Amino acid sequence: MENVRRYRALASLCRQQAAYRPLQNWELLGQAEHFEHLAEVELKAHFNACNVQRDEDAAAPPTWDTPVAA
User: Fold this and answer.
1) Using one digit for the tens of pLDDT, what is the confidence trace for 9-38?
2) What is the mean pLDDT of residues 30-58?
3) DSSP structure class, residue 61
4) What pLDDT does 67 receive?
5) Contact 8, 40 (CB under 8 A)
6) What are the phi and psi torsion angles at 46 (to 5°)?
7) Given this model, what pLDDT does residue 50 score?
8) What whole-number distance in Å separates Cα of residue 64 and Cα of residue 70?
9) How far apart are CA 49 and CA 54, in angstroms?
10) Quick check: 32 and 9 in contact, CB under 8 A?
């Protein structure tokens, strides 16, 4: 999740710089879009890993103890 914050911060910096540098506007906006894409990929990987772990826990059948009559 730390990488997501870093990618989003870099994207924000690129957009800010694009506002102040009109000659490099398109290049900086392209870099911002690239960093946002990396953040999305990182988030998807994180949530997929969490869901796989949860699915593995749910897939194990519960063990039932059968009472034994005395």
Assistant:
1) 999 999 999 999 999 999 999 999 999 999
2) 87
3) P
4) 65
5) no
6) -65, -50
7) 86
8) 18
9) 9
10) no
